[in-house]
Design a protein that fits this description.
elongated; about 475 residues; alpha/beta; two-stranded antiparallel ribbon
């Protein structure tokens, strides 16, 4: 079991007061039944060596000696006081480094800290807080109280508890964690630790946690509802109170509106969930959530594109998709993209495939890279024309450029998603101008290119060619049933 440890900077005793500043903090902790098991005291040369304290018998002693006696009177053994020698001034980084190093060396895992900010120069408080935060992040050491003592003219001391103010560090950390990783656990822990029971904040936290979970699972439809509820919760103020929790709500409100400006604003014009895909992808990329961004695109990009430009299989093309058992029960848009646009690496050899991209048994593959590469723009153009000529695809020819752009980008999305999901994939380390470099810069550039493309086609609506019946993007593939086209 860990110890209760008090951190303090020992102040020289002022002869005009009956007590020494740090005494009040110790008495306060004893009163709160949190008697320190260890007191780590930064003691300057003046405190350790100058006999400035007058004793009742007329003798003098150092502040350090006086403080030890004061601890004994409170029932605290002298050995619990651990002296850390520091110079009278810690006005440079080297001295501050030495002081923090000594503190950290004496704080153990599972200890619980209290901090007395009563003594020292103006930078001493920051030094003690820095040490506490380091211990929290490095060893899981929590800080229970942050207090300081004010000496009163009557010789007593008044204690001020600043623990709530200190805990704002946890709020800042929790907000940073959520907006950088999408994880809301620290936000939840912060509110729970503060004992907040406000139903408005509880509702907001529930929405945030649900959004965090749905983002991790890439559930776009659910994300839309989560954002709607978050926007609604942010518009409902908590009960009036002048507390740090109330301040938290307003800070979070501002941060949410800054981070999700496009997503939350879209609630007002009733945009469909799918139309938020570009904003979600941009948000994920901005915060390093590359796997989520790629998965969102893999799952939702086909429907988004087919909702804005006309692209669908012909009747014979649909029948072929029906022959594949893995396609049954799925909307046709995903199998169409995955079948036609994910295997374009095969285009690097001249006609090694049949019209439906099934490889011939005698295909050549001299360098071993055929299944891991991507096609060029020229090869994609040729393939789209060939698929149309062979009666596999039907498109609005006015948007063929956008169709080919979709093929190019989707192929690269799948390529990177597979590499990220399977870091030890055989493609890793292969050298070819057809294999995309697996690094953050190239993934970020692809996500930017995809977002720009999705924004470009957002205003567009499918223009159905004459004599063709549009196939709803939600139509699923089922065995033995082919919709009339």
């Amino acid at each position: 079991m860990g110890r209760d440890v008090l951190l303090l900077y020992m102040s020289p005793k002022n002869p005009n007061y009956k007590t020494q500043t740090n005494e009040g903090a110790v008495r306060y902790l004893i009163k709160e039944k949190e008697t320190p098991d260890c007191i780590l005291a930064l003691c300057s040369e003046t405190v350790r060596k100058k006999a400035v304290v007058e004793m009742p018998d007329g003798s003098t002693c150092t502040t350090l000696e006086y403080f030890r006696d004061a601890l004994r009177r409170e029932g605290i053994p002298a050995e619990r006081l651990v002296v850390i020698e520091v110079p009278d001034s810690m006005d440079d980084e080297k001295k501050q480094f030495q002081a923090i190093s000594q503190l950290l060396d004496k704080i153990e895992k599972e200890d619980t800290l209290s901090i007395d900010l009563s003594g020292g120069m103006r930078d001493t408080a920051m030094l003690l807080v820095t040490a506490a935060r380091c211990m929290r992040d490095l060893r899981g050491v929590e800080t229970r109280r942050v207090i300081y003592s004010e000496l009163c003219p009557d010789g007593t001391s008044r204690i001020h508890d600043s623990s709530m103010l200190y805990n704002l560090f946890d709020l800042i950390t929790a907000m940073d964690e959520f907006f950088s990783t999408g994880t809301a656990q620290k936000l939840k822990n912060y509110l729970q630790s503060e004992g907040e029971n406000d139903p408005v904040l509880h509702t907001l936290l529930t929405c945030i946690n649900r959004f965090s979970d749905d983002l991790a699972l890439c559930r776009v439809q659910a994300l839309n509802e989560d954002l709607r509820q978050i926007a609604q919760a942010l518009q409902t103020p908590p009960k009036e109170s002048k507390t740090l929790i109330s301040l938290f709500f307003h800070l979070l409100n501002d941060r949410f509106r800054m981070e999700f400006e496009g997503l939350l604003a879209s609630q007002e014009n009733n945009r469909r969930a799918l139309d938020k895909l570009p904003e979600l992808v941009s948000w994920c990329a901005k915060h390093g959530l590359y796997q989520q961004a790629l998965t969102l695109l893999c799952e939702q990009m086909p429907e988004y594109i087919c909702s804005h430009i006309f692209l669908q299989p012909t009747e014979s093309g649909f029948k072929y998709l029906e022959t594949r058992k893995e396609n049954r029960g799925k909307p046709w848009v995903y199998p169409l993209f995955h079948f036609h646009f994910c295997r374009m690496a095969l285009l690097q050899l001249k006609l090694p495939y049949t019209v439906d991209l099934r490889l011939n048994r005698n295909r050549g593959n001299e360098d071993g890279n055929i299944l891991f590469g991507v096609a060029s723009a020229e090869e994609i153009h040729d393939y789209v024309n060939e698929a149309i000529d062979f009666g596999q695809l039907v498109i609005d020819h006015k948007v063929q450029r956008q169709v080919e752009g979709a093929a190019m980008l989707y192929q690269r999305v799948i390529h990177y998603r597979n590499q990220v999901n399977h870091a030890n994939d055989t493609s890793f380390g292969l050298q070819s101008d057809r294999i995309l470099p697996l690094d953050i810069a190239h993934i970020e550039q692809l996500l930017q290119d995809v977002t720009d493309y999705l924004q470009e086609i957002r205003p567009m609506r499918p223009n159905v060619p004459q004599g063709v019946k549009a196939l709803p993007v939600t139509t699923t593939i089922s065995a033995g049933t082919t919709p009339a086209l």
